[in-house]
Amino acid sequence: MTSGDDSRRELILRVATSLFAALGYDSTSASQVAEAAGLSVEALGAEFDGKRELYLEIMEREYRAERASLVKALEGISAVTPEQTALVIHRVIDHYLDFCLAHPEFPSLWMHRWLADASDVTELERRYIQPQIDLVSSVITPAMEAGYVDADVDMKYAFWSVVWCVHGFCQGGVLDRDGNRQDAEDPAVLRRFRTYLHKMVHRVAALPGPPPS
């Protein structure tokens, strides 16, 4: 494959990612992708064998990017003391929020799936969500077994609460008293939301020390 072919393929992936994130898989046609990329449907078909293959490659790329980011966030730390346990958990929170802000298409693609988008494309949750849960669990579970986290806390739901909150914030922001939408572009709004996330999980898990401010 030539560099020209590589750049064309990358263009298609970039355009399709934006369309799938904005409209959803079901509401995006191959002809829309081709038109947005400035290509013919035939040229698109020469690169990808249909919309499904294109979607699968995009979701694979998104997973690999998030996986690499999570691995880096957890690199060099372990939950072997109560304080380190708190550090790991707060680092996971920051990782997920920062990744979603840097890759806004990521929460959008998954929120579409929450609404049954691309329901005929199965196994994505098992292939791309479960490994992330397993990675975080592999770090946190020993700390829970050692009693560093309140035994009554459901950490799976605590982390899912972070996911739900982050996706909602990234997609919809919050409303001020006048009904105007505020989002992460306002540093004060982002700082307030980040602090809320940390305090929410810190208190639910009864972690040692004060939460990050």
UniProtKB/TrEMBL annotation:
Which stretches make up the HTH tetR-type domain?
Answer: 6-66
Asked if the keyword Transcription regulation belongs to this entry, the reply reads: no
**What InterPro entries does the annotation carry?**
Homeodomain-like_sf (IPR009057), HTH-type_TetR-like_transc_reg (IPR050109), HTH_TetR (IPR001647), Tet_transcr_reg_TetR-rel_C_sf (IPR036271)
Feature: DNA-binding region: 29-48
- Write the record's keywords in alphabetical order, separated by commas: DNA-binding
Q: Which domain of life is it from?
A: Bacteria
Q: What is this protein called?
A: HTH tetR-type domain-containing protein
